[in-house]
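Board notes, transcribed. Complex of a protein with magnesium ion.
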Amino acid sequence: MINPFKESAESSLYQHKNTVKFIVLLIAAIIVVVSIYYNNFIVNHLKSREKQSIELFARATEFLVQQGDEANVTFINEYIIKTNVTIPVILTDQVGEPTGAFRNLDIDESKSSEELLQLLREEVAEMKEENEPIPIVYRNSLGEIENFEYIYYQNSDLLRQLNYYPYIQLAIILLFAGLTYLAFSYSRTAEQNRVWVGLAKETAHQLGTPLSSLMAWLEYLQADERTQGHEAVAEMGKDVEKLLMITERFSNIGSVPVLESTDVYEVIQQSVSYLQRRISTKVKFTISTVGKDIEAQINRPLFNWVIENLCKNAVDAMSGIGQIDIRIMRGSGQFIIIDITDNGKGMSKANAKKVFQPGFTTKKRGWGLGLTLAKRIIENYHRGRIFVKHTEPDEGSTFRIMLRA
Ligand SMILES: Nc1ncnc2c1ncn2[C@@H]1O[C@H](COP(=O)(O)OP(=O)(O)OP(=O)(O)O)[C@@H](O)[C@H]1O
Ligand SMILES: [Mg+2]
């Protein structure tokens, strides 16, 4: 048999997927770094401009105090001092005590002067953290320093907003990308589900008709004196039974399966004894349990299928001879744990990560669907978990199933 998607699945699809993922992440990272870097550049630029305008403000104030010229005074007042409508500033004396003069602060002017002063002090403390204050030096006519004051200032609202802008923008983009990804992966999963379910339903349906006819013929042969008790009839009976089992599995996959509280040991025992008749007698099974009455929510035909797939893989991993140990335990909380350990050839760590991917196989005649199906049955139909618990090349592997009690 040729596996139609083995080649593409293993070599191109999965490798491609990882490369594409890597490239997308890389581009995203570059965009993030560049946009934050560029924004920082703009912010720093704007910051130094704001500082310049406060310096100008300070120099203008010095000039105002020393100059008597009416025309100049008006010019400076109108065009330099009053044009600062964005940068919050507070004037203080030498020791940093507010003089009461301030600009562009959101302060209620109707407050008492004591309250106002207190507010200004708090603002000054904050401003001190952000920027070094700029001194205004007053000199007398001889050029000696007479007095000085400080201008404390804060970044303008624009600068503040610009500081946060890239983070807000990135957060929104991230949220949007996340939602889109979720929506797509949801619709993809839904599509896969429809394919699985539809195909299984159709298969069960198609098998149904010839099967019921076969069963009728078998009954006829069993009743007929000439063929009654013939070896061929008995063998045909077994095959029909097997076909019935397969049909039942497909019809369960194709519908919402009924879960029933079932004795785990008993189901596994049944699966194993069925399998044992069909494989080499040199493969030994042991089933151990911490108690005989461990029950889990199970759909029998589907769960049997899982055990069968896992055991078949274990047998394939051995060269005809070996040991398969199945252990049933109670996990923490609501879970029942089933460990299936073989002493076969094991897997590499890289392969162990891929075994549940559809189409992944290392076998010449494998389809790479056994574990995909097992995962589907356990996780979608039983709301449990299945994973590779442990594996070591040349030593063996342990698969763990967790079911709801
Ligand atoms: N117990 C195990 N020991 C070692 N390798 C394993 C074991 N179980 C699974 N594998 C590896 O995982 C691969 C995928 O297993 P899976 O059952 O999904 O597909 P398959 O057995 O190759 O084909 P099929 O669809 O016929 O079952 C196998 O080809 C094998 O390489
Ligand atoms: Mg298999």
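The chain has a mean pLDDT of 88. The longest strand covers residues 145-153.
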